[in-house]
Design goal:
The chain is α+β, with helices and mostly antiparallel strands and 398 residues long. It is 47% helix and 10% strand. The chain has a 6-stranded mixed sheet. It has a two-stranded antiparallel ribbon with strand order 1-2. Helix 1 runs antiparallel to helix 3. The radius of gyration is 33 Å and the shape is extended. The chain starts with a helix and ends in a 30-residue tail after the last helix.
Amino acid sequence: MAACMGRQLLRRLRQKYHVFPTDKAHAALLCPSIHHACRAASSATPPKEEPQEATDLMSAMIAAAQDRRTAFDALIQRQQEEYERGRRHLANMMGEDPETFTQDDVNRSIRYLFPSGLFEKRARPLMQPPTDYYPPQKAAQFASDGRPFDTLFYTGKPNYYNLMHETHTELNKVIEIENSCITKGILKPTAEKLDLVRSQWIDKKAVGSMIVEEISDSDYNKFTLLLERILQQPYAKEVEDYILKFREELVAVLSREVIEPIQFDETGRAFAKGHGTRKEAEANVIVRDQGNGQVTVNGHSFLDYFSVVQHRIQVMFPFHFLGMLNRFDLDCTVRGGGKSGQSGAVRLATARALRSFVDESTVEKMRQAGLLTRDPRVKERKKPGQAGARKKFTWKKR
């Protein structure tokens, strides 16, 4: 017990005074009080060395981890060589050039040579690079002496926090560019606006695969919020390459319903049109990308035309559902019906126009959310002998 207390005291004194003596004489010269305190604390019982078994166990664990990583790298290299050999052979079988034979050509050839009627696509024959179906593994995290390479190793998620630090560095870079421009007297941003309308953030699983770590929903939300902060900066175009690493393109795919293709005006700005109805109201909208969230209805301001908050929420819900607020300009033309019916018609027309900017899976999500379904409800007629459509007259016994 006394030896343990002595070692703890020595450690605390060294941390407090930043003294790391190599011998007793040197320690006494640097700080005599520390030397006497350490000698008094350690004079009771000599310190015991760590058991050799613990050191051997640690060395064995480190060696086993390094062996697993080496075996995994060898497996990936061997499988990659076999894949390249098979890809070139498949290209020769199909009569194509092996040098320009892409993965899409491989998939098409496999479907042609091995037709399958299985409904589950994962059960069908495939030929892909080994990195697509072998889960990635981390490299060695510590040296042979047990010391970790990364300073964030003991956070439990070093790769995630390194990614957050790197993203925050990009944010500071954009802010410094803006500050330097303001110092030079340039108040209006000269850089072009970053066009990310036809793309979305990669999902949590993709981020985890990229950093070879499992992250929680909270960690993913913090990361995307930090990226959104970068997009809010006027000079976000300067770090476009870094932002695009975490974006995936959305390609509009035609489904059973005919989707209006994206059109371009004389300035090269993309837009799409939509039509919607509800009750007696009818709406035609034009959704323009690279906007700032401006909405006009029949030439009037959005806030002036729809004074009720519920009607405003109805109009903006498609943008909120897709996470594309403040990225489009909306021009609406409505007629007939009341404000409630007109807001519902604008919502349907806007959702139909936004289909041109998203992929098929997102269109399906919109359909499941009810954004693409016309509201069939209409005012129910009054019934004879009743006060209204459903309401009855007050019953009186006499």
